[in-house]
Amino acid sequence: MAVMDYIDAIRLAMKEEMTRDEDVFVLGEDVGLKGGVFTTTKGLQEQFGEERVLDTPLAESAIAGVAIGAAMYGMKPIAEMQYSDFMFPATNQIISEAAKIRYRSNNDWTCPVVIRAPIGGGVFGGLYHSQCPESVFFGTPGLKIVAPFTAYDAKGLLKAAVRDPDPVLFFENKKCYKLINGDVPEDDYIVPIGEANVLREGDDITVIGYSLPLHYALEAAAELADEGISAHILDLRTLQPLDKEAILEAVRKTGKVMIVHEDNKTGGVGAEVAAIIAEELLYELDAPIVRVCGPDVPAMPINAPGEKYFMPNKDKLKNAMRKLALY
Amino acid sequence: MGKQMTEIVMPQLAESLVSATIDKWLKAPGDNVSMYEPICEINTDKVNAELPSTVAGKFVKILVGAGETVPVGSPICLIETEGSADAEVRPDVPDGASTAAAKGEEDSDSSMRHRYSPAVQRLAADNGVNLTFVNGTGIGGRITRKDVLAFVASGGPANQPGGAAEPAGTQQKMPVRSSGLHLSETPRIPTIPAIEVEGPSQPGNGEHFIDVTPLRNTIATRMRQSVTDIPHAWTMIEVDVTNLVVLRNKLKDEFMKREGVNLTYLAFFLKAVINAIKDYPIMNSVWAVDKIIVKRDINVNLAVGTEDGVWTPVIRGADQKNIAGLAREIDDLARRTREGMLSLTDMQGGTFTVNNTGSFGSILSYPIINYPQAAIVTFESIVKRPVVINDMIGVRSMANLCLSLDHRILDGVICGRFLQRVKDNLEGYNLETKLY
């Protein structure tokens, strides 16, 4: 087993799936010759050739449209949106075509496409390079959405996404690329879509989240342990469909819930998680549900203090977690 | 304005970068460095760049040698600057002060002591925990889920002081009696004010203090005045109310349906008492030292007990009302008493007092006269007992009537006759009796 970066785990997953299945191919802006602006697809074109690693025009609607059409025809495309911010021209293809074709054709047609898109800020990317578009797609039945946090999950979930018979949005976090690393087996394993994962056991408070903020939650939990506060941390991993049982089980552990994500607070994934808890577990709650999320402002500021204000970090989470534990 | 050491840290040169490598130092210790002057060259996966100084001063020390890779944010060198502290390059110092301050305040704060979360209420109900005895460790003294779990784990309900020590603020309503019939079988639940206890009630601390409320003070004054001024005498009579029980059972459902109020035994009893007073008006009088004032109107005080005291609202012109009207009055006064909605006029002008002591299970009581009236009568629990009738034993519904009298005004004979009349009236109820 090797310790590798999150980004390397994603690349390895694509490499393994392309080796395993000839129908798998990659397309996107600068994914071929350049190897991706983040180097995510570095070396793939050299290994698999121009016909399986396609450099596309700067037209996300075309990337999605081509990938969706190929998928419906039996291929297993992995379409890359260079930044999830650029995904919106492809939104119509994804929501109205990919998500609905199985339903619309009464199971005659399927669309096994994977759309990879880097989400999140904290990289001085400003408005066009920092968005979290989960909530735009979250309420769309027919789409599966995964958002791995660990390197292990990044590889396992991407492989599961490639093999899934339906469209999967793979939201990788660009700040995690090099920040997060861990043991990643070099053998062929998958992480099932739809299963959450307990990152840390605890009995004072439950933190539920996905993607980068979990890094800060883990750091905060380690420090709070010195204060005698024990945090239970659940990584949702899959946003659609949510692992309700795991959410409810995690809530039952402590009765005090904090939900964290970088996406805006209003209408975010946390709102749905909170609603599920309120519907199912009112009598297990020991404190009001807390959400620590990005503020409801139009965009990630480009200036450093503004970005810092927007982004979740260890201290913000630590303070909120301590407050909840003391409640 | 003193000299000050400033750390230069590895900046985040490009998005997604978390570390960078020092390629070459352009400055050596002892060199002067001006603002924005390059101090070293750095390599990353994406870019190679010169790093400009963010301060002006004297280069003091290299912390990270050429060729070493360090995480973004790590100090790489020290520069001595002249001037004030606002040349500080690291503004982001985590601030835990506000939460620490909040934590310090909580000890004296008990604003959340009685705010129970759903989890706490459910755990308390499931485990039979009286939350009054659970120590709250949350903010504002709130009892947390963990506090309840710890309480249960430590022996839980067994630790709860029982019996007399239980404060009246608890919500547990136990049936007060196990035999006989209640006069009002569906008493409305009164609102229960919490008793103010001075200081925390600790197990093993044998006593606590209860502030005397204005109501309790009034009751105390009146009672003392009555027993001091009035020479009390006491007598009791036994009544067979079997027929009344049958009558009421037959009528009560229909009555509830039609009138919307409970047809209580008390209404029948009041009617029996009022009719007896009409026959013996001296019962409806007041001692005035050199004379006895006999009141013409019969205004009956009805003693209504609440958790924190007893009230005696008045049914005016009681002799003008039939049984249905009395039932309605009783319901109205009892409800308004328990809701604390009595007005001053509700309390004035009473001439005779009736106390329904059977409602709390008594079979015998020694009432204190409602000063300055001449007498008070109680209606005790109806209890099924074996009774000898015509030398045979039968099971009959029996109730006691107790009368305290002002012996200055009344004597045994007149009171005996009065009670006998009440008894006759009660035993005279049968299925032919009209409510209206």
UniProtKB/TrEMBL annotation, chain A:
rRNA-binding listed as a keyword: no
NCBIfam families on file: PRK09212.1
UniProt keyword list: Oxidoreductase, Thiamine pyrophosphate
InterPro entries, per database record: THDP-binding, Transketo_C/PFOR_II, Transketolase-like_Pyr-bd, Transketolase_C
The keyword Mitochondrion appears for this protein: no
Top-rank lineage group of the source organism: Bacteria
Transketolase-like pyrimidine-binding domain location: 4-179
Cofactors demanded by this protein: thiamine diphosphate
Protein name: 2-oxoisovalerate dehydrogenase
GO molecular function: oxidoreductase activity
Automatic annotation (TrEMBL), chain B:
GO molecular function (one): acetyltransferase activity
Stretches assigned to the Lipoyl-binding domain: 5-80
Chain ranges of the Peripheral subunit-binding (PSBD) domain: 115-152
Keyword presence, Transferase: yes
CDD domains noted in UniProt: lipoyl_domain (cd06849)
Cofactor(s) annotated in UniProt: (R)-lipoate
EC numbers, comma separated: 2.3.1.-
Region named Disordered: 83-114
Keywords, comma-separated and alphabetical: Acyltransferase, Lipoyl, Transferase
Protein name listed in UniProt: Dihydrolipoamide acetyltransferase component of pyruvate dehydrogenase complex
Keyword match Ribonucleoprotein: no
Domain of life (superkingdom): Bacteria
Family the UniProt entry places it in: Belongs to the 2-oxoacid dehydrogenase family.
Enzyme class: transferase
GO cellular component: cytoplasm
